[in-house]
Write the structure tokens for this entry.
Amino acid sequence: MKTHYSRIALGTLISAISLSITSPAFAQFAKPEDAVKYRQSAFALMGAHMGRLAAVVKGETPYNKDDVVRNAAIISMLSGMPWQAFTSGTESGKTPGKNDALPNIWTDGAKFKSASEKMQAAVADLNSAAQSGNPENLKKALGAASQTCKACHDDFRKK
């Protein structure tokens, strides 16, 4: 079962990367709701893989370096993807469906960009910590990466 979900996630990731490499217009979504779905999907996948690492850190899942490295690498790869989908017209209330993006994403773009860069840097550190094979390094880096996610949610996401 675990392998099945890993293959699905990997297939989704490969498809997304392939599209981003082969299509220069990839960042131009046909409809605003497509951009919202895209960024929500990227965040959901990151969250799923962060959850797998959290289970290891909490001792709920046995430590397996290969699994840890794979999950951290997927998070790292995904961490740059959602930002291109925060385009004009994708604000909450302007698209159908669930959308918790606050207007200050667009009105305070510099702060939002800084938050996204902090998250990506923390995720790069998480990826390095995973590769180190040291569970304590993983725990520390996962905590730091999680804090950047929380900070962005606190500032830019409806509660």
In short: The helical segments are 2-22, 32-57, 65-78, 104-107, 109-132, 135-156. Confidence is low (pLDDT under 50) at residues 21-26. The chain has six helices and no strands.
